[in-house]
Amino acid sequence: MKTTHRPRVVRNVGQAVAVVVLIAGTTLLGASPSYADDGPSVPPGTQATSEPPVPVDPNDPDLKMPEGGTLAPGRVLDIVQVVEDLGGEERREDSNADIKFALQAEVLFGKDSAKLSSAANARIAAIADEIKKQNATKVRVFGFTDNLGSSAHGDVLSKKRADAVHGVLSKALGPTITYEIRGYGEQYPIASNSNEEGRKKNRRVEVSFPRGEGS
Questions:
Q1: What is the value of pTM for the model shown?
Q2: Would 74 be classed as within a structural domain?
Q3: Which helix (H) or strand (E) holds 90?
Q4: Are strands 138-144 and 178-183 parallel, antiparallel or unpaired?
């Protein structure tokens, strides 16, 4: 016996609305329609990168300190603040414990030379004033070069340049300061040696000392 399927007839307006809602819901909950990409609605980097945190139950027994337990000592994070002048000739780093100045070699010396330029004394004198302000008694003077030329030549040149800066500081600060003077050559670059801009930053002398009561 052949069975004939007849289309369902909507008997009233309420049923018609229900059918329309059902079809619309299928479209919304099924495959998403394709729209033109007009870009993000907010600037990149401002979108949330994770789900909102789940509220914490303050009465959760796992959050309670066991009997006899104690809190660990508090720690002060060492935050470093970096200030660099417009030409990158001088860089200052301030942390909770230390202050470090990095002077580009071109500001202090001629090319491939350890002889101080006429502008060098004023730069080094300003660092000496900061050392006095901090009441520091220990000062580190480290020289660095780029990776051009031989490693041995860079080691010697960087040490001579550190010695030259130390000579000016010692005259300004007197005999009460203990110095650590080293030449590291091409070690510890702070920029890429693949281009002149980076190599220029790597050719430098750093003067660092502890932060004192005067900060």
A1: 0.63
A2: no
A3: strand 90-94
A4: parallel
Q: CA 136, CA 133: separation in Å to the nearest integer?
A: 8
Catalogue the E-assigned strands of 112-177.
138-144
- Phi/psi at 28 (5° precision): -75, -35
Tens-place pLDDT, residues 164-174: 999 999 999 99
Residue-wise pLDDT for 9-34, tens only, equals 444 444 443 333 344 444 444 444 44
- 37 occurs within a structural domain: no
- The single-letter code of the amino acid at 206 is E
Q: For residue 91, is it within any domain?
A: yes
Answer for the pair 180, 98: CB distance below 8 angstroms, yes or no: no
Instruction: Tell me how long the chain is.
Output: 215
Q: How far apart are CA 214 and CA 93, in angstroms?
A: 16
* Total domains present in the chain: 1
Identify residue 61 by its one-letter amino acid code.
Answer: P
In one-letter notation, the amino acid at residue 173 is L
